[in-house]
Amino acid sequence: MDFTETERIRDLKLRATRFLDEFVIPAEPVYAQQKTEIGPWETPPVMAELKKAARDRGLWNLFLPGERGAGLTNLEYAHVAEITGRSPWIMPEALNCSAPDTGNMEILAHFATPPVQKRWLQPLLDGEIRSVYSMTEPLVASSDANNIDTLITEDADGLRINGRKWWSSGAMSPACKVAVVMGRSNPDGEHHRTHSMVVVPLDTPGVNVLRSTSVFGYSDSGHGGHAEILYDDVRVPRENLLGELHGGFAIAQARLGPGRIHHAMRLVGMAERAFDLMCSRAHERTPFGRPLAEQGVFQDWVAEARIRIETTRLLVLKTAWLMDTVGNRGAAIEISGIKVAAPRMATWVIDHAIQAHGGGGVSQDFPLAELYAQARMLRIADGPDEVHKMSLARRELRRFA
Amino acid sequence: MDFTETERIRDLKLRATRFLDEFVIPAEPVYAQQKTEIGPWETPPVMAELKKAARDRGLWNLFLPGERGAGLTNLEYAHVAEITGRSPWIMPEALNCSAPDTGNMEILAHFATPPVQKRWLQPLLDGEIRSVYSMTEPLVASSDANNIDTLITEDADGLRINGRKWWSSGAMSPACKVAVVMGRSNPDGEHHRTHSMVVVPLDTPGVNVLRSTSVFGYSDSGHGGHAEILYDDVRVPRENLLGELHGGFAIAQARLGPGRIHHAMRLVGMAERAFDLMCSRAHERTPFGRPLAEQGVFQDWVAEARIRIETTRLLVLKTAWLMDTVGNRGAAIEISGIKVAAPRMATWVIDHAIQAHGGGGVSQDFPLAELYAQARMLRIADGPDEVHKMSLARRELRRFA
Amino acid sequence: MDFTETERIRDLKLRATRFLDEFVIPAEPVYAQQKTEIGPWETPPVMAELKKAARDRGLWNLFLPGERGAGLTNLEYAHVAEITGRSPWIMPEALNCSAPDTGNMEILAHFATPPVQKRWLQPLLDGEIRSVYSMTEPLVASSDANNIDTLITEDADGLRINGRKWWSSGAMSPACKVAVVMGRSNPDGEHHRTHSMVVVPLDTPGVNVLRSTSVFGYSDSGHGGHAEILYDDVRVPRENLLGELHGGFAIAQARLGPGRIHHAMRLVGMAERAFDLMCSRAHERTPFGRPLAEQGVFQDWVAEARIRIETTRLLVLKTAWLMDTVGNRGAAIEISGIKVAAPRMATWVIDHAIQAHGGGGVSQDFPLAELYAQARMLRIADGPDEVHKMSLARRELRRFA
Amino acid sequence: MDFTETERIRDLKLRATRFLDEFVIPAEPVYAQQKTEIGPWETPPVMAELKKAARDRGLWNLFLPGERGAGLTNLEYAHVAEITGRSPWIMPEALNCSAPDTGNMEILAHFATPPVQKRWLQPLLDGEIRSVYSMTEPLVASSDANNIDTLITEDADGLRINGRKWWSSGAMSPACKVAVVMGRSNPDGEHHRTHSMVVVPLDTPGVNVLRSTSVFGYSDSGHGGHAEILYDDVRVPRENLLGELHGGFAIAQARLGPGRIHHAMRLVGMAERAFDLMCSRAHERTPFGRPLAEQGVFQDWVAEARIRIETTRLLVLKTAWLMDTVGNRGAAIEISGIKVAAPRMATWVIDHAIQAHGGGGVSQDFPLAELYAQARMLRIADGPDEVHKMSLARRELRRFA
């Protein structure tokens, strides 16, 4: 194991932290204010300024390996992702590193045909448009991806899509122009050779964006919400297929590894933000004659929080390092591990920070309640904890069979 | 201990359950729809119909002991409160049994002067107006009520109030007309002889309702939100004092006992609602080849939930019975106990119901996320868990000193 | 629900508590001393004195309903069982109310033929001998009773038993004279019509008591340990069959209900003993300048412990009351519930009492570590938690199918 | 951070693992058998053979940095310590790496006068004798080391020691020849300049080894138990003082850092042993028609265990690396962190392995119950969890003051 903070990592962290402190944190109240002024689904204008500033500072598309992006390893990017998690509604987008665009760009870069790459990947890389990932469905237990029931059929004219999706995050935003859609193309196929993935421009006839679902009362409006979309006999050309026909699972799998590092490290950053708020607050409030910071139960939370944050961060870094060195498959146990460990740690830390803030903690006066909602959602998104634990356990138990 | 379900309790439960099934549950989508149509702080019109129906059926002011109310014991009312918790945004209000009106009516009935009772208690009993309880403050650790810093001074003209409050729930509603305000009147007084409580009409000059704080992303709009109020040199006549000058703590204490039974039993009802949703859903969803209802981890949640709900319910019933037989003081350990146990149980059950619903669980398609926010808030409101545990422990440890 | 502490219950509690304080607690050091002096499996002589004293005071066979015993309801006896749990190695035996004799006496009273009752039930009721229940087996997952593999075959001479059992508690004691053995008699029979139960005198040829298994490091020597027994072609007459041939499951089931009340209430008593020790100790120790009793984290444990003990006690009392009024079947959910809740609560409370005692807590200087081992064992004995949760959940989920 | 598994670490792990598999695991039943044959406090003879084999293979004194030992870094040794934890009663001693000898050798090497080093350090390094660390006292809350009350006074003849200690581990063994004793020498001194540490040969007049305390029911007999020792006017020459007079706290502190790495890594190894046992067993047992390995609740435990083990191991490795690079002080938060995290993780994993083994789990047929007792003890030894959490939290909160 080698998590050495190389010179390169130290430099990246320094630059990202400066950007956070000098641009992002000061922009938070501006962003919040602008959100109340523009329509519900528009992106606050300050975002364009932040994007420009980030790009000027070389903090752009850091998530993307290889020539198209910044060429960082997963381990290197992980450190940046943590810092972006301190302001999770603003900084990832400012750096063009926010989900689901990151995952979509990755699979477009690997699996899309050249015309599709030109049409959709380039503007995404330039932060000019946003995209949506249409996988989860309201009518089936999507925690088991085999259940996905949207139909993709092939005919002479290309591909035809019929089905209903939800949690298509971002699609309420006018800036969101294109979807990656997973559907069943081969009902009787072999295991994991049953589904395909296609690129669907959102202005294609038959694409009906119906409404947005909320996350604990929050609409995630700045990001374009979480749309329910009816794909009603939508037709796209064959070139919009990603990878092979019926090869959707392999693409979904490839997409997941890095995405989990990103989510997990952002959660570490979210937890650190909550930790800072909790510790600062504790010096300012004095219930029962002593500052909260000197009270035993509160100190217990601080110690627990530090232990949980630190152990989780280490596991994510190890996972990133494994992905860099032995690949997704060799890191499978750890990838499942962080998918479970990181949101749980973050919800724990944030929940205790809320409690330490009293009524303020659940309100809009601190980011804590919304951080909680985000972190809690991540115990469900991309598969609930239980599925990842099952998968991890089966892999371990195989060794003893 | 005698929790016998008397004939009277059975009758009450039957009538309340019928009202829930025939009126309240069907009204839920209507209420939700109307909320989207009226301005943010208005009460949905269906509420008036429900109130009338409840009153016609003798389900009115059941919370209030003695002649003014239904004359129920705490134990008897507890059973009703559980049923109202199944639809906590609608049924308590429909029965004129919702916080903070219930607590306010109780203290008005016990401690207000006759003119104040006539002016404010009667319309509250009739469900014509709503009221607010102004205790918590944004600038101090209000978990320790000694910190409350709003100033109440007496002069020849009466009482003068200066201070800032928040979590003054309900005050955003146009129907809300009067506040009960706690403030410091005797800074150098003996322990618990430092604060007073006064009745303040909301249209008094100097009462500035500034904004509402949210609970996670929810505004509790139907109920009139949670207001921040600046009391800026507000003057009320001496007759608006509740009880004795500097006797505010005793009143606050008297208010709390029954309130905790109400909250705790509603939480039991909220948990039962989540339990039902979780169990029903589990028969409908089939991840990985077997219905969720047949999967081990899910069954474990069901068993845990049932054990937690049942044990908590029993503790609340015992507490109610103790209050009826030996009074608040004799029930002090149990009152602290349910303040801690009930919201914790409910958040646990609801959180697992959310997880069992996947994305639907955090969304507006099920009441679960909003139930969670309510239950979580109750680990803070009326004093955070930690304060009640400290108080319970000190009482126990005294026996061994 | 009616848990009224009747005059009769109050009287029982008073007498049992007096016996505890005046006889049992003072006998604890004597018992411990005698154990070091006699051989490993003998009963300390003080037990005979305690038995006599208990019998003289009408505290004898209280567990047994009907004419043969004290005629108490389950609810009435539950209160006594809690008190016996405060000294679980001495008081239950002193009152002739200790497992497995209690369960064995119950089934002998219900299901044995008259000659067997005369030969074995009477001396057990008189506390002259002890008995063993041979169910669990080392070679199969006995948490699923269907796996039990000891063979019981019938021929012209009677019944023949072949198999290996362990956790046959008490059989190491010279006072233990008879076993109740469960075995497979009907391999191809219908569900729950496959096993039989027989009475086997321990001096029957072929009964080989091989060794004792320990619980953590404790041998439970005073009680006769936990024996592994090889039944090697053991023959008993047909009259030794309990109930019907192949009717063993029904008997096992009947045995379990009351047994779970007994165990659960003793666990409540064990937890109360640990609670008392923890609270007393906290006034005597002063780490970091303040008595432990005034430190926040410790107070948190006290409050948690009180809440957990109280809620669990209430659930056990409700279960006892249900068994008295609607029978085992109507109380099935609650019986499973207390089987899970009581040992968990007790291990939690005792574990924290250990922690509050530091090194003393794990040592022989306090009963805490041995109480922990007992309580922990009860998360496994009579079926592990997981089986009971599964059973409870299935029953609940059926309502929603 | 750089946890790179260097060539040297890989080689060490390989050799240690081979020694475990080829010598230690096969010696376990021999050791157990010999323990039943020799008197209670003797070391089983097989240990001498194992020590020789280890020394022959260069697996000797690996814990000790610098020339006297193997010259390993903390990070390098940590990997070995984990492997020794798989057989914690045998392998550490076989490698001359068992507590409290390791810590004693470290402080003798750093702080003893040359004659004391010659007399006591050398035979310890050669594994010829064992030693004891006498710190904890039965009469005070030793979790706060300031409470330590044994008196050390200086006069013309040297040092005089009076006091009572317990948990002086190892002193029941005839092989144990010397104690390191901490006592109060300067009652009115400044903070942390109040205590001294001295070397006391166990055959000095006035040293009374009174009895041994057990851990749950285990006596740790192979290791010489845990002695209560009365130091009754014991006199030693001035040269037996370790370091400066009144400088005991600094020595105790220096001793603790590496010791915590050792304990924590052994706990990781203990947890891995339990994990292996649990997973193997799960393929062999089939309750309710499916192997335990295929049941959801069990799989959940496996995943949880893996996540907890892995995150804890990473934190310990990071701590070791920090100690190697920035020293004890720079690693203070992490040292406290692993003191809390490792025993908690291990007790969790072992407890679930016990549960998966049913009755076998608590018995002598598997090492699980004794592993649990060891791990549980380590939540108390060297200071209870609560003290380390307090210390960690204070350090963190200082940043926000």
UniProtKB/TrEMBL annotation, chains A, B, C, D:
<dbReference type="InterPro" id="IPR006091">
    <property type="entry name" value="Acyl-CoA_Oxase/DH_mid-dom"/>
</dbReference>
<keyword id="KW-0274">FAD</keyword>
<comment type="subunit">
    <text>Homodimer.</text>
</comment>
<keyword id="KW-0560">Oxidoreductase</keyword>
<protein>
    <submittedName>
        <fullName>Acyl-CoA dehydrogenase</fullName>
    </submittedName>
</protein>
<comment type="similarity">
    <text>Belongs to the acyl-CoA dehydrogenase family.</text>
</comment>
<dbReference type="GO" id="GO:0050660">
    <property type="term" value="F:flavin adenine dinucleotide binding"/>
</dbReference>
<feature type="domain" description="Acyl-CoA oxidase/dehydrogenase middle">
    <location>
        <begin position="134"/>
        <end position="223"/>
    </location>
</feature>
<feature type="domain" description="Acyl-CoA dehydrogenase/oxidase C-terminal">
    <location>
        <begin position="247"/>
        <end position="395"/>
    </location>
</feature>
<dbReference type="InterPro" id="IPR050741">
    <property type="entry name" value="Acyl-CoA_dehydrogenase"/>
</dbReference>
<dbReference type="GO" id="GO:0003995">
    <property type="term" value="F:acyl-CoA dehydrogenase activity"/>
</dbReference>
<feature type="domain" description="Acyl-CoA dehydrogenase/oxidase N-terminal">
    <location>
        <begin position="7"/>
        <end position="128"/>
    </location>
</feature>
<dbReference type="Pfam" id="PF02771">
    <property type="entry name" value="Acyl-CoA_dh_N"/>
</dbReference>
<dbReference type="GO" id="GO:0005737">
    <property type="term" value="C:cytoplasm"/>
</dbReference>
<dbReference type="InterPro" id="IPR046373">
    <property type="entry name" value="Acyl-CoA_Oxase/DH_mid-dom_sf"/>
</dbReference>
<dbReference type="Pfam" id="PF02770">
    <property type="entry name" value="Acyl-CoA_dh_M"/>
</dbReference>
<dbReference type="Pfam" id="PF00441">
    <property type="entry name" value="Acyl-CoA_dh_1"/>
</dbReference>
<dbReference type="InterPro" id="IPR009075">
    <property type="entry name" value="AcylCo_DH/oxidase_C"/>
</dbReference>
<keyword id="KW-0285">Flavoprotein</keyword>
<dbReference type="InterPro" id="IPR036250">
    <property type="entry name" value="AcylCo_DH-like_C"/>
</dbReference>
<dbReference type="InterPro" id="IPR009100">
    <property type="entry name" value="AcylCoA_DH/oxidase_NM_dom_sf"/>
</dbReference>
<dbReference type="InterPro" id="IPR037069">
    <property type="entry name" value="AcylCoA_DH/ox_N_sf"/>
</dbReference>
<dbReference type="GO" id="GO:0033539">
    <property type="term" value="P:fatty acid beta-oxidation using acyl-CoA dehydrogenase"/>
</dbReference>
<dbReference type="InterPro" id="IPR013786">
    <property type="entry name" value="AcylCoA_DH/ox_N"/>
</dbReference>
